[in-house]
Each structure stands twice: as C-alpha cells, then as structure tokens.
Amino acid sequence: MYLEVLMMFLAAGLIAAAALVVGGLLGPKKPGEVKLSAYESGVPAVGSARERFPVHFYLVAMVFIIFDLETAFFYPLAVKFQAAPQFLFANAVIFVAILAVGYVYLLRKGVLNWK
Amino acid sequence: MTHDPLWITFIKALAVCVLLLGAFAYMTLIERKLLGRFQHRPGPNMVGPGGWLQPIADAIKTIFKEDLNVTAADKFVLVLAPAISIVFALSAFGAIPAGPAGSLFGFNPWVMDLDIGLLYILAATSLGVYGIFLGGWAANSKYALLGSLRSSAQIISYELGLGLSVLAVIIVAGTLNLREIVELNIWSVSPWLWPGLLLAFATFVISGTAEVNRTPFDLPEAEQELVAGYLTEYSSIKWALYQMAEYVNMLTASAFISTLFLGGYRGPRFLDALIPGVSEWPFIWLFVKMAIFMFMFIWLKATLPRLRYDQLMRFGWIYVFEFALAAALVTGAVVAFVI
Questions:
Q1: Cα atoms in the 13 Å half-sphere on the side-chain side of B109
Q2: Pair B231, B206: CB distance under 8 Å
Q3: A35 touching B, CB under 8 A?
Q4: ipTM here
Q5: Chains A–B, number of C-beta pairs less than 8 Å apart
Q6: Taking the CA atoms of chain B, what radius of gyration do you get in angstroms?
C-alpha cells in the first residue's frame, strides 16, 4: 500500500527534475557581478543576510511544537472516539484544561504580541 | 479491490502531476481574467482566441529566461528548495479520491488509498514549508530571509487551526481514510452535529486560505514591504516552480475541503431521480466542488485587503486556534452526550 506513496513521489520528483534541467539548459547565460548580487532596493548589498532575526520567530516555533503535539495526540483519540465517547471526552477535556493553563500564560506574557 | 498494480499507479501518478500542472497554467489565466472582470476590464485577451493561449506563451517565455544564481547564495539549497516545494505540493494531491472504486475504466480514480490518507495530506502539505524556508535562507538576501521567516511562521501557526478543525470530522467519521469519510457523508449522521461541523468547516476554510498564502493572508508576498518575499532572488524556471507549488497547493486545498466537508466525489443524491446514477459519476463532482473553492480564492483576492502581520498572527493564534478547538470539543460533547 505504501509503495503507492513512493510512486507518487517518484512521478513528482521526475517532473521537478525535468523542469529544472530543461530550464537550466535553455536559458541564456550572461552573468555579471551586479546582476548576481543580492537585491537590496538598488543600492550595493551590505553584509550577509545570515544574521540574528527577531526572537518572536523562535517563540512561535516553540509554541507551535507544543500545540502541534497536542493536536497529534488528539488524532488517535478522535479515531477511536466512538468506542467509549463519554470516557474519552472527559479525558480530552482534562488534557485541554492542562494545556489551557499554558496557553493563558503565553497570552498574558505577551508571546503573541508583535510590536 | 482498492489497489491497482504498481505500474498503473505510477502512470496515474504521472497523469495527476501533468493534469495539476495543466490546471495550474490555466488557473493563472482564469485568475487574471476574473480579476480583470472584477475590476471592469477584460483581462488578458490578445494571445490566441480570447487569450486562451496566454499560459502557453507564459510557459515558453519562462523556460527561455536566464536562470540566475546569486553569488552569495548556497547553490545546492537554492536549487533544491523549489524542487522540495513542488514535489510535496504535487504528491499531496495523490491521496484525494476522485470517484468510486473501479470507476476509471476498471481502475481506481486515485493514486493511493491510504488508511491514513487524511494525515498523509496534512503531512505532505506541511513539508512544503521547508521549500519556502530553505529557499529564503539559501538566497542570502535580506528580503528573501525576512519573507521566508514570516511565511514559515504564518504557515506553522495556521497549521494548528487546520489540524484541530479536522478533528471534528474524524470524531464523526471514526476513520482517517478519505474514501470512507466521503462514503459516510458526515452531515447525514445527526442534525445535532451540524453546529460543531459548521464551525469546523469555517475554521478549516480560513486556515486553508492562510496555508496556501492567499489574500487576505498573502503576507509572504507583501510587495510594498518585502519586494517579493522568499521569491526575491528567484528567476526563470525556479520561480515558476514556486508559482506552480502555490497554485497546486490551492487545488489540493480545494479538493481537501470538498472531500472532508462537502462529500468529495459524490454528487447530490436527489439528482439520481432525474438521471439514475448521476451522483456516482467520477471526476465531475469533485471538479465542480474544487471550481467553487478556486473561485472563492480569486474572489477573496479581488475583495479583501491584506492583513498586517501582527494582526495575522493574533488572528491565527487566538481566534482560529480557539474556535477550531471549540469545534472539536462541541462535536465530541454531542457525540458523547446527545446522540
């Protein structure tokens, strides 16, 4: 069954590789120093772009991992939900309540306030 | 039989890719024509009869453009990133069933029939974010880096809303197999489930729009502040691959929404009274439903202005997240205590 997934990736990979090869072969090649420098609104590029970036992006990534795991834990519960609905619903509510404490803390701390 | 021989699967996979790319080409034209109509102008109408050869002209022009690799860039990743984007965008669509089993000349109208089809599509579409992030990082340009950071943060934030709003459907259907979800028809289970499912549908459409970077959530391409976001240093075919990935993702999102919430490849049953078996015809119903959502994406683009970035993040983390969770809990409560 999962060989079908492999077939799909093979076909998509073929298309992507063909497009890159054809595009690389057919286009004109007239490189120049200015043409190949990074675009910075028309003035010469200063320094590298590999610098520190706002800490908010790290925070969003960390918070995302926590809540995405929460979602991932819910999937098996949702699939088998009808086996024992009331018991599983109580479980889900307790789980959400624990995470809700963290969520309210995040909001109060202003993690999601972009300035 | 829900599985075909492997070589048939490979041919179907290639056919899906080619069809998606054709659909991408003509979606760009339809989008420009519709946007023109929304703004009281005809849109592209010069290349070929009524402008219908425009995508072919665009494709030829793109292929023959110079492929620039910025000197400061990481060459390998710069080439790899658009390939990642398009491969995952194309592969995600393979799990969508387009008709009942065996309706494609005796074969099955889907590339793969997975018990975890729903998870597979969520996984494949979220892997696409690597293409965007690596592309922006590899170019070693400040605009590209900022654009890709913003885009990644936006996509992972709205993925939560997407993942949580699907829960309501899974609770009702009790399976992750897309074909079984379509056959079950979640709306027919009980009217008490409708409020939860409607809420889930609304949050799913909103986060789906944000996932595919469409207006009003198209911050990655906010020209006024970021030039072209992660696309800044891309040209020629690599730029085209990113565009393809965006449109293919739109098509996948439309098909995914239709499959989960609107009965996918099944047509309305009352039409069977007029033409017997019409609701079982393959392709046509999925196509109609996808067209409705594609039109919605274009309509939104013509109507709504772009959100500010902090508004976008707050909207995703506070409203979409909470309402999606509420939809899952409401549906769960109804299943546990009402029916």
A1: 20
A2: no
A3: yes
A4: 0.85
A5: 227
A6: 21
